[in-house]
């Protein structure tokens, strides 16, 4: 394992589309483990291969529930929308609000060649979208919502989330929708990974 050199800011590779991976060989496996090491070293929650200068469709994510390595990831469904702060290891001096789906389901191939599916909620959904964008040469700084605008959207969003959470928590007990005045606490991020199909030798 080795820490790879990151690409930053206006490096043109960050704006290029990455190519599909057709063979999971030792180079891809080494790249994946190096990317995880690089991501942990820089305390990120996700990293895409173009960020270490490799234009292949490979991303790694760890939102605190263990690493996920995704080859040729594709979003198959998404739901809702959340505005929240986002950052990127390739833009260390830049952060900002970005609108992303609240729920995302993505399919991908894992390092063993199995066809897998992951369901992400909140931060994991955000990370999946952010990293797949990198594979398409898209960077979050182009999607930022101005701070003043985001500040206006967030109280309403938090009210809605509190309401939804309250429904989930209390509907079975009292059958009523009570919104408490307590501060909204984000639900735990969902990380559900499933193997859809075992790998085949030609992959
Ligand atoms: Co990024």
Uncertain spans: 175-189
Strand content: 25-35%
How do the strands of the widest beta sheet line up side by side?
1-2-3-6-7-8
- The DSSP helix count reads 3
Estimate the mean pLDDT confidence: 89
List the secondary-structure elements in sequence, H or E.
HEEEEEEEHHE
- The N- and C-terminal alpha carbons lie at a distance of 24 Å
- Biggest β-sheet: count, sense, barrel? 6 strands, antiparallel
Give a short synopsis of this structure.
This protein is an alpha+beta fold and 203 residues long.
Supply database-style keywords.
203 residues; alpha+beta; Peptide Deformylase; two-stranded antiparallel sheet; 3 helices; 8 strands; binds cobalt (II) ion
Walkthrough of the structure:
With 203 residues, the chain is of the alpha+beta class. The protein has one domain (12-170, 184-197): Alpha-Beta Complex (Peptide Deformylase). Helices cover 26% and strands 26% of the residues. The chain has helices at 26-41, 123-135, 147-170; strands spanning 46-48, 58-61, 68-79, 82-87, 95-100, 103-109, 115-121, 191-197. The longest helix is centred in the C-terminal third of the chain and has 24 residues, at 147-170. Residues 175-189 have low confidence and may be disordered. The chain binds cobalt (II) ion. Cobalt (II) ion (CO) binds at residues 88, 90, 130, 134.
